[in-house]
């Protein structure tokens, strides 16, 4: 049914927009396969510098290793599914686009909303760790003074918003450089750590105290699994941090020179790179003499702790700056992803359309990036004051991490469901690449994702953050139900979905 300036399709209505609407929302194609690889690896690499280590407190070293393997299997299933869907649906919407085609407007919106939580909160987590590293560096360089942590967060957002706004070419060049530098830093650490490691004494220095919590074993040589298999499962949410955001790569589809060829290559190569790096850091960081799993379980700067133990405090400032590179790489690339994710939902009318306007000169979604940054920074400030400011320590980072993982898990499950539905309902869709794992790989992703969510709920820090996620979901869903679904726009994702719905 159509009439006036709207077109009704089921429970949603599409508002008609002229050519100028899309001219104000243009993107520029620039990325090749190496840019895409760097975007995927760079988004994740900070998780090898900070965050993953909290898992030692719930699973010990063996629990962290096995949880990492399980989560790697989940991501392999997800990555192959995305590698098939992204060239078949080469739109900036990524997860929302996949789900929109498979499950309709409501399914697309809910999936996009879950992904939105991940990409708005993840930069906040990384900004927190950047603040932790900078605070540690500052305390060594200027022991008689300190900087209010939220100032580090604000400066971080400001600098990398600017880099992302001033052109796609600049953004991808920065991404490639900082990703390569991050991997170089990790390789230097691995080489340095090998002659300084004592695995049994330091990596296995966690036991279980009378209260059931982790306790330090002064002589090490503890169990690989001090908390048993339940500890492995409880560690799954922290292991996610070793790979979280590799799935953002398809958000660059409309800025890729050849998405149908390069998307599968970029995301699979990125996943293989991260698997190698994850194993090396989980093995070596806690094994360094003087560090240990127990210390890392509450550390905001685990890699810096490792460098300090190897080279001493005399070079702590330089080492801290070097260790910052990985966090910078991920923050820069996640800001990119956050902007494109908000942009795609806004361009299609799911979010207010003003958010998708691109810069007249640089053709970057600067409004979307500003909006996402303001929300992320606002959440950090609320957490800061609600949890006690300076006294909260790593708690703020842990709560934010749980929020990001919560949104990501739902997004992964819904993307895997979308893959299965597209295989079943759209068998004739043009698929330049087909997942070798097929439907079983997607099912495995769903199963591991559900188990991870169930164990995440048992984390005491989960409830401190999930309230804010639930509130955001509620506000967004009410907005879409009352306003958004009556103002959708025929963006490329929507046109593609409607066209294939008619063919099915």
From TrEMBL:
<dbReference type="GO" id="GO:0022857">
    <property type="term" value="F:transmembrane transporter activity"/>
</dbReference>
<keyword id="KW-1003">Cell membrane</keyword>
<dbReference type="InterPro" id="IPR050367">
    <property type="entry name" value="APC_superfamily"/>
</dbReference>
<dbReference type="InterPro" id="IPR002293">
    <property type="entry name" value="AA/rel_permease1"/>
</dbReference>
<dbReference type="GO" id="GO:0005886">
    <property type="term" value="C:plasma membrane"/>
</dbReference>
<feature type="transmembrane region" description="Helical">
    <location>
        <begin position="61"/>
        <end position="83"/>
    </location>
</feature>
<feature type="transmembrane region" description="Helical">
    <location>
        <begin position="119"/>
        <end position="139"/>
    </location>
</feature>
<keyword id="KW-1133">Transmembrane helix</keyword>
<keyword id="KW-0472">Membrane</keyword>
<feature type="transmembrane region" description="Helical">
    <location>
        <begin position="151"/>
        <end position="169"/>
    </location>
</feature>
<feature type="transmembrane region" description="Helical">
    <location>
        <begin position="314"/>
        <end position="337"/>
    </location>
</feature>
<feature type="transmembrane region" description="Helical">
    <location>
        <begin position="466"/>
        <end position="483"/>
    </location>
</feature>
<feature type="transmembrane region" description="Helical">
    <location>
        <begin position="224"/>
        <end position="246"/>
    </location>
</feature>
<feature type="transmembrane region" description="Helical">
    <location>
        <begin position="434"/>
        <end position="454"/>
    </location>
</feature>
<feature type="transmembrane region" description="Helical">
    <location>
        <begin position="399"/>
        <end position="422"/>
    </location>
</feature>
<protein>
    <submittedName>
        <fullName>Amino acid ABC transporter permease</fullName>
    </submittedName>
</protein>
<feature type="transmembrane region" description="Helical">
    <location>
        <begin position="366"/>
        <end position="387"/>
    </location>
</feature>
<feature type="transmembrane region" description="Helical">
    <location>
        <begin position="267"/>
        <end position="294"/>
    </location>
</feature>
<keyword id="KW-0812">Transmembrane</keyword>
<feature type="transmembrane region" description="Helical">
    <location>
        <begin position="176"/>
        <end position="194"/>
    </location>
</feature>
<dbReference type="Pfam" id="PF13520">
    <property type="entry name" value="AA_permease_2"/>
</dbReference>
<feature type="transmembrane region" description="Helical">
    <location>
        <begin position="34"/>
        <end position="55"/>
    </location>
</feature>
């Amino acid at each position: 049914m159509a009439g006036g300036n709207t077109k009704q399709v089921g429970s949603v209505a599409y508002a008609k927009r002229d050519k100028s609407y899309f001219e104000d929302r243009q993107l520029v194609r620039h990325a090749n396969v190496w840019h895409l690889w760097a975007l995927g690896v760079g988004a994740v690499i900070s998780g090898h510098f900070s965050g993953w280590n909290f898992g030692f407190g719930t699973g010990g070293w063996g629990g962290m290793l096995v949880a990492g393997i399980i989560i790697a299997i989940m991501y392999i299933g997800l990555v192959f599914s995305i590698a098939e869907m992204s060239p078949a649906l080469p739109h900036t919407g990524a997860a929302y686009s996949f789900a929109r085609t498979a499950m309709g407007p409501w399914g697309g919106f809910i999936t996009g909303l879950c992904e939105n939580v991940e990409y708005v909160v993840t930069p906040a987590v990384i900004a927190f760790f950047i603040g932790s590293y900078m605070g540690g560096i500052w305390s060594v360089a200027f022991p008689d003074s300190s900087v209010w942590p939220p100032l580090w967060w604000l400066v971080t957002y400001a600098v990398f918003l600017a880099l992302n706004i001033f052109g796609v070419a600049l953004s991808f060049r920065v991404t490639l450089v900082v990703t390569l530098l991050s991997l170089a830093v990790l390789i230097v650490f691995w080489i340095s750590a090998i002659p300084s490691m004592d695995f049994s004494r330091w990596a296995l220095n966690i036991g279980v105290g009378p209260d059931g919590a982790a306790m330090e074993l002064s002589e090490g040589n503890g169990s690989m699994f001090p908390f048993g298999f339940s500890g492995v499962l409880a560690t799954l949410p922290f292991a996610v941090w070793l790979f979280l955001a590799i799935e953002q790569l398809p958000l660059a589809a409309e800025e890729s020179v050849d998405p149908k060829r390069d998307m599968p290559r970029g995301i699979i190569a990125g996943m293989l790179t991260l698997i190698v790096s994850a194993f090396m850091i989980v093995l070596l960081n806690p094994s360094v003499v003087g560090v240990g799993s127990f210390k890392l379980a509450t550390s905001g700067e685990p890699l810096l702790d490792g460098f300090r133990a190897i080279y001493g405090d005399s070079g702590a400032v330089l080492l801290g700056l070097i260790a910052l590179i990985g966090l910078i790489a991920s923050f820069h690339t996640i800001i990119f992803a956050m902007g494109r994710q908000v942009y795609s939902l806004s361009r299609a009318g799911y979010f207010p359309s003003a958010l998708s306007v691109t810069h007249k000169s640089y053709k970057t979604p600067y409004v979307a990036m500003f909006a996402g940054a303001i929300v992320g920074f606002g959440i950090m400030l609320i957490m800061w004051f609600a949890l006690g400011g300076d006294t909260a320590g790593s708690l703020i980072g842990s709560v934010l991490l749980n929020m990001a993982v919560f949104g990501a898990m739902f997004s992964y499950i819904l993307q895997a469901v979308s893959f299965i539905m597209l295989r079943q309902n759209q068998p004739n869709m043009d698929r330049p690449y087909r997942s070798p794992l097929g439907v079983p790989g997607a099912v495995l992703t769903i199963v591991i994702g559900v188990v991870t969510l169930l164990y995440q709920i048992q984390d005491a820090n989960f409830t401190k953050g999930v309230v804010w996620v639930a509130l955001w979901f509620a506000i967004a869903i009410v907005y879409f139900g009352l306003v958004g679904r009556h103002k959708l726009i025929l963006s490329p994702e929507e046109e593609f979905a409607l066209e294939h719905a008619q063919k099915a």
